[in-house]
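In the lab's daily routine, each protein ends up as an entry in a very long ledger. A line of letters takes care of the sequence, but it says nothing directly about the fold. The fold becomes a row of whole numbers, each drawn from a learned catalogue of backbone shapes. The protein below has been through that process, and both of its lines are reproduced in full:
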Amino acid sequence: MRTALGFRAHSGWAAMVVVAGSLDSPRVLERRRIEIADPEMPGSKQPFHAAADLPFPQAEALVRSAADSSRALALEAMSATLKRLRALGHEIAGCGLLLGSGKALPELEKILASHALIHTAEGELFRDVLMWAAKEYRLPVTGVREKDLDASALKRIGSLGKLIGPPWTQDQKYAAMAALMTLGSA
């Protein structure tokens, strides 16, 4: 069965949904939260916040270290999911990833000087980590802006919650939509 993974990232974690089928006839195979920040690493959930008050060389090292750690965790989570799906005979068409605004970020010093940019950079970091992990497995990534999600399709996806039970929050619905869009474009 052709499947796709969908992700909606947050600071240190992401909602992951695996789907098959189409927008008209979706099938949710798996949904869970994956951790992409090491709870043992201080500042890893919000590395730009943690780096904001540090001298620049330490700030740069903390952000780099957190990003490297998050990449490893995303790779581990994706590896386990892909192995499970392939063992069941599924073909993975790609990944759908909910994106941010798409505005380019300035250099790190300017990011750390602006609280608004710190939030933006953290969102981008965790989305980039997921995109990187997917590309490491040579999976095509379909980036989807939340504002571009079709409202009527979201309503249909939302009704799946009655069939499959909780959790079926906005995170899972959006991730499922991104995955289904990936299947439609693959």
Observations:
- The CA atoms of residues 102 and 113 lie 20 Å apart.
- The chain has one domain: 2-185.
- The mean pLDDT is 94.
- The radius of gyration is 17 Å.
